[in-house]
Write a structure and sequence with these properties.
The complex is a heterodimer of chains A (157) and B (784). By secondary structure, chain A is an alpha+beta fold. Chain A is built from 5 helices and 5 strands. Chain B starts with 17 loop residues before the first helix and ends in a 6-residue tail after the last helix. The chains are: A alpha+beta (157), B alpha+beta (784).
Chain lengths: 157, 784
C-alpha cells in the first residue's frame, strides 16, 4: 500500500507516493530522475549514495523514504547556485584533479560540503576522518583531501 | 635539442567531463532508463561445483516474470576476452551453465516489470543440484585423480581435453640456464605469493539492452571495449554486426574488471531478445565480487649472480590459480615471462608457467596483468641479493636493468620492441637524493615499539601491445577527425576513458596537432556503428596507441585543411604554417613573412562549405610498431608497530617516466591512485574462501573484503610525485603510458621498507598485522 509523503528536494516541495519498503535512493533516482546519487553497494559500505537529509550526510541506500517524510533533501544536483554557478567545492575538485571515474564524486562532494559547513578550517586529519566512509577506488584520496582543504581556505576568504 | 613549445600538451586543464561529474549529470550504465524497460535478476549457484539435475521456473513465471535457463541461450562455448588472436583463444564459458563451477556462477535469469518482482521470481525458481567435488588449491587441482572442472574446452575452433585442471601452460627458454648458474658465484632461490584481490570498481557491472525492430540489439554496458563486446554478441547470438550497436558510456572505474565482455551482457541480451523489450541488469555488490578478481600467483624464483653484482641466470616457475574459467591465462603467462625478462638482463633464463582451474571466482586482468605479481617477487629478491653482496640495492638495480637500446617484451615473447626512451637512472639517482636514501636506508634500526624503515622498488609497464610483428594479441586504434565550419574540431574514437583522463589527453593531441584551442576540441559521443575499431583501453595503451592513431588522423585532416587554405591564399600548401591564436579562439593558417596571408581554420572550413569543396575530415587506423615501457620507481617509508603488528606507510616518493606528460594533474592522479591500490595490495586486500562451502568469507561485502580508506594513507605533504625528463620518439608528442606502471612496484617497495625496519622478509602479500607479529615472535631475523 503506497503512502503519500512530502520531501523538499533541492528546495522544491515534492508530493510523492511511496511503498513502505521503498528506499530514498530509489525514490530519488527512479521517481525524480536525480541519478547523481549512485548505487554502489546497497548496504551502506561505500558512500556513493550519500545525500544530505536536513543538512546531514546520509546514506540514501539505507534510508526508507517513508521514514524521512517532511525532510529536506539535498542531492548533488542541488549544490550549484540558481544561476548555475558551481559550489566552491565543486570548483576545487575540478581544479585539483580530484575527479577520475566520477562515480564516488557526488557523495564525496556532499560529505565534504557538510564538513566545511561544520568546520570551515579543518585539518588534514579531520578531513580524512570525515570522508573515511566514502570510498574512492581511483584517486588514492590525495587530491580529494587537497580539494577539500583548498576550498576551506577559499570559503573563508 | 630545444624543447618544442606546446599550447595544450603538458598544460593543466579542467577535464572535459569534469563539470558533468561534479554536478551529477554524467550518465553511467546504471542511470539509463528506457520506455517499457524490464528489470533483471540472476539466479546463481550456491555450490562451488555442481551439476543441475532439474530447474523449475513455473512458479516464477506465474508471477509474470520471464525466465531463461541454459536451455534458452545459444549452446556454445565462448571466451569473454577476445583481444588474443582466435587461434590462441581458449573458450570455456557459457551464457548460463548447467554445471556451475564456482559459488555465484549464473544458472538462470529473470526479467520482470520491477526489480522487486524479479527478485521475488528468482526466489521461486526450484533447482535440484547434484553436488560435485570441488577443489580450491591449485596444487591439489593438478594432482592425478582430482576431479576436473572442465573435461573439454575449445582452443580456437578445436575441442581439446583438459589434463590435470591445467588451463594453459608455457615454457620459455633463452640461452642455457645450466651454463648460467654454473657461472654464478651466488645462487638464491625463494618463493613468493600474492593475493586474490577484488577490483572494487565503484560502479557494479551493469548492462541495459534494447532489442531493435530490425532484429538487432543496442547495448549500454560497463566495458573497456565496445567493439569487442559487439563482435562477441554477434558471434554468440548470430546477429550481423551491422545490427549490434554498443554505445560508449561513462564507466564508474574498472581496473581491468571490464576488460572482457562481462557475464551480465549476454544474459541481458538473451532476456531482452526473448522479452522483445528493453532489459536492465545491475549486479549487486555481492554478485560483482563473485564475478572476477585479480590473478593471484605463486612464484618460485632462482637467480644466479656474480660477486660484482652481475646477474648470470634466472629460472622462474609460476602457478596461477585462475578460478573456474580461463579468461586469458595463456597470454597472462607469456606476459609474466615478459615482465620478468624486461626488468633485468638475464643472459640465460627459463620460465615455466601453469594456469590452473579451481572452483573459485574466475580471475582476470587487474591493473598490471601479472606485472605486480612478478615485480613483487623480483624486486624483493633484488634487495635480498644486494644484501648478500653487501651492495646498495640501487647500485645493483642500475647495474642490471634493461634500458635504452635493449629489447623489451611488451606483451610476452611475441611482442618485442627496442627501448628508445628511458628514465630509470634519473628516477633512481634523483629519487634517492630527494628522499635521503643512503642515510635513511643505512641508519641503525634499534629499540622502541615503532620501527622505521625505507624501501625502494622499480618497475614499468608496457604502453600497449604493438610491435613490428603481429604477435598473439591484436593492437590497433582508429579515429575520425573533422573540422567544423567555425574552426572547432570533433573527434570520434571507440577508445574508452576508464576515469584516468585518457580522452582529455587525446583532445590535447588534436588541439596541439591542429593548432586549435583545447576548448574548441570536442569529444564526440560514440558507438560501434559510428567509430572504427579500437581494441580496448587496456595494457596502458590509451595515450600511446589510441593517441598515436588520433595524431595520425589529425595530421591527415590538417593536410586537407592546408590544401583548401592553399587554394584560398594562393600559395602552395608547403608554404603554409599554422598556429594557435588564443585571443581569436582559433587556429590560424598563415604564410611566414608575408603579411596579409593569414586565415583562420574556421574561415577555411566555412569557405570550403560555401564553395562546395566538402568537409575537412579524415578517418584511419594505426598500429604502433613498438610498445615503449613507462618506467616507475617508488621510495616508501614505513613505521612498523612491533606491539600491534600494524604497518603504517608514512611517506612515499613516486618517480615516473611517462615520456612527455600530457595531462599534468591527471598523470599525478594516476600515481596517487596507483600508490593507494598498491598499498592495499601489499597490506590488506585478498579474497578468501571457506573451503567447506566454497563461499567467499567476505560474503561479497566490501567492509569484510577490506580496503584502505582516506584515513590509512600518508598525508598529502608526504607523498611526492616526479616525472623524468624523457621523450618517447615513437609516441604522440613524445608521450607514453602510465596507468598500470603506477601500481606495479608498490608492494615490493613496501615489503623492502618493512624489511629495512624490522629485519623480517615477507615473501607473501598482503602482509597482515598477524603476519608481522608472528614473524617477530618466530622468524629468524637479519643477522640473527
Amino acid at each position: 500500500m503506497k503512502k503519500q509523503i512530502t520531501l523538499t528536494v533541492n528546495g522544491v516541495k515534492r508530493e510523492l507516493f511511496v511503498s513502505p519498503n521503498e528506499l530514498l535512493l530509489n525514490v530519488l533516482r527512479d521517481q525524480l530522475g536525480l541519478t547523481g546519487a549512485k548505487y554502489g553497494c546497497g548496504i551502506g559500505e561505500c558512500g556513493s549514495c550519500t545525500v544530505l537529509l536536513d543538512g546531514e550526510p546520509s546514506l540514501a541506500c539505507l534510508t526508507l523514504a517513508i521514514a524521512v517524510d517532511g525532510s529536506e533533501v539535498t542531492t548533488i544536483e542541488g549544490l550549484q547556485s540558481r544561476d548555475g554557478k558551481l559550489h566552491p567545492l565543486q570548483d576545487s575538485f575540478l581544479e585539483h584533479g580530484a575527479v577520475q571515474c566520477g562515480f564516488c564524486t557526488p557523495g564525496m562532494i556532499l560529505t565534504g560540503k557538510v564538513l566545511l559547513d561544520e568546520n570551515p578550517r579543518p585539518t588534514e586529519e579531520e578531513i580524512r576522518a570525515y570522508i573515511r566512509g566514502n570510498l574512492c577506488r581511483c584517486t588514492g584520496y590525495t587530491q580529494i583531501v587537497q580539494a577539500i582543504q583548498d576550498a576551506s581556505v577559499k570559503g573563508k576568504a | 635539442m630545444e624543447k618544442p613549445q606546446y599550447h595544450a600538451i603538458g598544460k593543466k586543464s579542467i577535464r572535459k567531463d569534469g563539470v558533468a561529474k561534479v554536478t551529477g549529470q554524467e550518465i553511467y550504465t546504471t542511470d539509463i532508463v528506457l520506455p517499457r524497460m524490464l528489470h533483471a535478476r540472476v539466479l546463481r549457484s550456491s555450490f562451488p561445483h555442481a551439476s543441475i539435475k532439474s530447474i523449475d521456473t513455473r512458479e516464477a513465471e506465474k508471477l509474470g516474470a520471464l525466465c531463461i535457463t541454459s536451455k534458452d541461450v545459444p549452446d556454445l562455448k565462448y571466451a569473454e576476452r577476445i583481444v588474443t588472436i582466435p587461434s590462441k583463444t581458449f573458450k570455456d564459458r557459457q551464457v548460463l551453465t548447467n554445471t556451475p563451477r564456482h559459488v555465484g556462477e549464473a544458472i538462470a535469469a529473470v526479467a520482470a516489470e520491477t526489480e522487486e518482482l524479479a527478485e521475488q521470481a528468482i526466489g521461486l525458481i526450484r533447482v535440484e543440484y547434484e553436488k560435485l567435488q570441488a577443489v580450491f588449491d591449485p596444487f591439489e587441482a593438478m594432482k592425478e585423480g582430482t576431479p576436473l572442472l572442465h573435461h573439454t574446452i575449445l582452443f580456437g575452433q578445436e575441442e581439446i581435453q583438459v589434463m590435470n585442471n591445467i588451463a594453459a601452460s608455457r615454457e620459455i627458454v633463452e640461452g642455457d640456464i645450466k651454463k648460467g648458474f654454473n657461472e654464478a658465484e651466488i645462487i638464491l632461490e625463494e618463493t613468493f605469493e600474492t593475493g586474490r584481490v577484488y577490483h572494487a570498481q565503484m560502479e557494479p557491472k551493469s548492462v541495459v539492452c534494447q532489442p531493435e525492430a530490425d532484429g538487432g540489439i543496442t547495448v549500454w554496458t560497463t566495458t573497456q571495449t565496445i567493439h569487442n563486446v559487439r563482435q562477441l554478441l554477434g558471434e554468440i547470438f548470430r546477429i550481423p554486426l551491422s545490427k549490434v550497436n554498443v554505445k560508449k558510456i561513462a564507466l564508474g572505474g574498472s581496473f581491468g574488471s571490464s576488460i572482457q565482455m562481462n557475464s551480465v551482457v549476454p544474459i541481458g541480451v538473451a532476456l531482452a531478445l526473448k522479452a522483445r523489450r528493453p532489459v536492465k541488469l545491475i549486479l549487486t555488490r555481492e554478485e560483482d565480487m563473485h564475478d572476477h578478481c585479480k590473478y593471484p600467483s605463486w612464484i618460485r624464483l632462482k637467480l644466479g649472480v656474480q660477486k660484482d653484482g652481475k646477474l648470470t641466470a634466472g629460472h622462474m616457475r609460476v602457478v596461477v590459480d585462475i578460478g573456474a574459467h580461463n579468461t586469458q591465462a595463456y597470454p597472462l603467462l607469456g606476459c609474466m615471462a615478459g615482465w620478468w625478462v624486461s626488468l633485468y638482463k638475464l643472459p640465460h633464463l627459463k620460465f615455466e608457467g601453469q594456469a590452473v582451474y579451481t572452483n573459485k571466482v574466475p580471475a582476470c586482468a587487474m591493473q598490471g596483468f601479472g606485472n605486480p605479481q612478478v615485480t613483487f617477487a623480483v624486486e624483493s629478491m633484488i634487495d635480498m641479493v644486494a644484501e648478500m653482496l653487501e651492495m646498495d640495492p640501487i647500485d645493483l638495480r642500475l647495474k642490471n636493468y634493461v634500458g635504452l637500446g635493449e629489447t623489451f617484451w611488451g606483451q610476452g615473447p611475441t611482442v618485442k620492441s627496442i627501448i628508445r626512451s628511458c628514465g630509470v637512472e634519473e628516477m633512481l639517482r634523483k629519487g634517492a637524493e630527494l628522499v635521503g636514501w643512503k642515510e635513511k636506508f643505512n641508519s641503525e634500526k634499534t629499540g622502541g615499539i615503532i620501527r622505521r624503515g625505507i624501501g625502494v622498488a622499480r618497475g614499468f609497464h608496457t604502453s600497449g601491445a604493438g610491435a613490428p610483428m603481429a604477435g598473439e594479441v591484436i593492437d590497433y586504434s582508429g579515429s575520425i577527425v573533422k573540422i567544423n565550419e567555425d574552426g572547432s574540431v570533433d573527434f570520434l574514437t571507440a577508445l574508452m576513458d576508464l576515469g584516468g583522463g585518457t580522452l582529455d589527453a587525446l583532445a590535447k593531441i588534436v588541439a596541439e596537432e591542429m593548432k586549435v584551442p583545447l576548448d574548441k576540441v570536442g569529444i564526440s559521443p560514440a558507438d560501434t556503428r559510428s567509430t572504427v575499431y579500437d581494441v580496448c583501453t587496456h595494457a596502458t595503451r590509451g595515450i600511446y596507441c589510441g593517441g598515436g592513431a588520433l595524431h595520425k588522423v589529425t595530421g591527415q585532416a590538417k593536410a586537407k585543411l592546408l590544401e583548401f587554405a592553399s587554394k584560398i591564399l594562393q600559395v602552395p600548401p608547403q608554404a603554409l604554417k599554422i598556429e594557435v591564436d588564443e585571443e581569436a579562439g582559433q587556429g590560424m593558417v598563415y604564410v611566414e613573412g608575408v603579411p596579409g596571408k593569414r586565415i583562420s581554420v574556421g574561415e577555411v572550413a566555412k569557405t570550403a562549405q560555401i564553395n562546395n569543396w566538402g568537409t575537412i575530415a579524415a578517418v584511419d587506423s594505426l598500429r604502433q610498431v613498438s610498445c615503449p615501457p613507462c618506467f616507475m620507481a617508488y621510495f616508501i617509508e614505513v613505521e612498523v608497530n612491533t606491539e600491534t603488528g600494524v604497518i603504517k606507510p608514512t611517506r612515499a616518493l613516486a618517480y615516473a617516466d611517462v615520456g612527455q606528460v600530457v595531462n599534468p594533474d591527471l598523470a599525478r592522479g594516476q600515481l596517487f591512485g596507483g600508490l593507494y591500490r598498491g598499498l592495499g595490495y601489499a597490506l590488506l586486500e585478498d579474497t578468501q574462501y571457506d573451503e567447506e562451502s566454497g563461499e567467499l568469507t567476505s560474503g561479497g561485502w566490501m567492509t569484510d573484503f577490506k580496503m584502505l580508506t582516506a584515513n590509512d594513507l600518508p598525508e598529502m605533504d608526504n607523498i611526492e610525485v616526479h616525472f623524468t625528463d624523457t621523450y618517447e620518439p615513437t609516441g604522440p608528442f613524445g608521450a607514453k603510458g602510465i596507468g598500470e606502471a603506477a601500481l606495479n612496484p608498490v608492494a615490493a617497495a613496501l615489503a623492502n621498507a618493512v624489511y629495512n625496519a624490522i629485519g623480517v622478509r615477507f615473501r607473501k602479500i598482503p602482509i597482515t598485522p598477524e603476519d608481522v607479529l608472528g614473524a617477530l615472535r618466530g622468524e629468524k631475523k637479519r643477522n640473527g
